[in-house]
Design a protein that fits this description.
Layout (H helix, E strand, L loop, with lengths): L3 H7 L6 E4 L3 E5 L7 E7 L14 H17 L7 E4 L15 E5 L9
Antiparallel strand pairs: 1-2, 2-3, 3-5, 4-5
Bound molecules: guanosine-5'-monophosphate and zinc ion (ZN).
Zinc ion binds next to helix 1.
Length: 113
């Protein structure tokens, strides 16, 4: 498996990991777009939002809960933050392993596109 995020999750390549449990791992984005830019992924290789199954609903719910907790822990929850998921080429997805971006620490652009 040459998926970069699978390799970070398995420890094959280093990542600045801020949270991990049996199902989920979170690490700092290598090219941060904001003072806080974390990536939250499932350990399981799901290529994109588009590939989610109904049976993944609890996992995705937990990913959002982890993101919210990290926003609190990293001190951005009070002022506000953004969770974003890119899907597919026109959605701006570059890494084909489902991930949530957690952005915060500055006033974010009001443009989503
Ligand atoms: P996407 O465009 O797929 O939604 O976002 C992929 C994100 O992964 C980008 O923000 C990019 O900077 C980040 N990224 C790509 N490769 C690596 C890596 O090897 N390590 C880390 N920590 N982040 C990465
Ligand atoms: Zn993967």
């Amino acid at each position: 498996m040459d998926c970069i995020f699978c390799q970070i999750a398995s420890g094959k390549i280093p990542g600045d990991i801020v949270y991990q449990d049996q199902e989920i791992i979170a690490f700092r984005d290598i090219n941060p777009k904001a003072p806080l830019h974390l990536i939250i992924i499932p350990r399981k290789h799901i290529p994109s939002l588009d590939q989610l199954k109904e049976s993944d609903a609890a996992l995705v719910g937990r990913m959002v809960a982890v993101a919210n907790r990290l926003a609190k822990d990293e001190g951005v929850a009070e002022k506000g933050y953004r969770l974003a998921v890119n899907c597919g080429t026109e959605g701006g997805q570059l890494v084909p392993h489902l991930h949530i971006h957690l952005l915060g620490g500055r006033q974010l652009s009001d443009s989503l596109g």
